[in-house]
Design a protein that fits this description.
heterodimer, A: alpha/beta, Rossmann fold, 7-stranded parallel sheet, 8 strands, about 40% helix, B: alpha+beta, hypothetical protein PF0899 fold, 3-stranded mixed sheet, 3 strands
Chain lengths: ~220, ~80
């Protein structure tokens, strides 16, 4: 005898993700999930975005890392609330971990939450954390073939930040060709060409973030 | 490697299904087959999932169940059905 179940395996994760999202709306917090492979420049991007963001928002960061708090230490000089999640080898953050981390933050005192996911170009794409937008930092030094090889990640984000563009010629990479391939995989997503260690390349990314934040925070105010 | 987490989630769903279905409450019942539906870009490697799952279900009513993975157009990774 066959019995139908028809349940998404991630149903529990997604339910907690939705709880998180409701909590963010309730407290008027715009939440951003930054993903990438290890070493692609997530923390460097944050370091160079935080000064701007701190002037406009009350920011907090949740740092996902397998074992260390090295990224959190790098962000310590910015004097913002940082919660470290160590996954002990786990390859992604899930909604429950974020829910737990939120207990350590005063949600009434922040309006921008940045989640830096565990460095991994595969698994984090599958797990809804309750964030409003997902962003991928893709370092071109990893090779021009990565967008198609990791299409589940590239197709599933609101924006791709093509990073380390200053190294394109050294790595023998045709930047335009790579960008076209990303647009093919993710036609709706935004694409920004950046060098995360050079603030002059971050203006477009930051103004897009402002626009997105405004949408969410304004919606919350109307409720 | 997130298949380990997925196996945990799947077992939770299956255990709840069995618990909530009166016709399955008989402890003698063994589940023969579990069918999963795998959508595009689900990031599920069936062999790896099966490996973790088989470890988790040892000693449970699912221990001898055969796993079947059916590709689907629908996004996501689903527990479709069980067979007794």
């Amino acid at each position: 005898m066959e019995i139908k179940v028809l349940k998404n395996v991630l149903i529990k994760n997604n339910a907690i993700g939705n709880d998180n999202r409701l909590l963010f709306y309730k407290h008027n917090i715009f939440t951003l999930n930054i993903m990438s492979s290890p070493g692609a420049g997530k923390t460097t991007l944050l370091e160079n975005s935080l000064e701007y963001l701190n002037n406009k928002y009350k920011t907090a960061v949740i740092e996902g890392d397998l074992y260390t708090s090295r990224d959190a230490e790098r962000l310590a000089p910015y004097n913002i609330p940082i919660v470290q999640i160590n996954t002990d080898g786990g390859c992604h953050l899930d909604a429950r971990m974020i829910h737990g981390a939120l207990q350590s933050l005063d949600l009434n005192k922040i309006n921008l939450l940045v989640i830096e996911n565990v460095g991994n170009l595969v698994c984090p794409a599958s797990f809804d954390l309750g964030e409003h937008i997902k962003v991928l930092v893709y370092s071109i030094t990893e090779g021009a073939d990565k967008p198609k090889k990791y299409a589940s990640m590239f197709s599933n984000v609101d924006a791709v930040l093509v990073n380390k563009i200053d190294l394109a010629s050294i790595c023998n990479i045709d930047l335009e060709q790579v960008c076209n391939e990303i647009r093919e995989i993710n036609p709706k997503g935004e694409l920004f060409k950046i060098a995360a260690n050079n603030r002059n390349t971050l203006h477009e990314w930051l103004s897009w973030l402002d626009k997105k934040a405004e949408e969410i925070i304004t919606q919350g105010n109307k409720k | 490697m997130h298949e380990a987490s997925l196996a945990h989630y799947a077992l939770d769903i299956l255990s709840e299904t069995v618990k909530n279905d009166p016709s399955l409450n008989d402890s003698e019942i063994k589940i023969k087959k579990i069918t999963f539906s795998v959508g595009p870009f689900s990031n599920v490697y069936a062999e790896s999932f099966e490996f973790y799952f088989s470890e988790l279900v040892k000693g449970t009513t699912f221990a001898s169940a055969k796993l079947e993975f059916v590709n689907s157009e629908e996004n996501g990774f689903f527990v479709s059905s069980i067979e007794i």
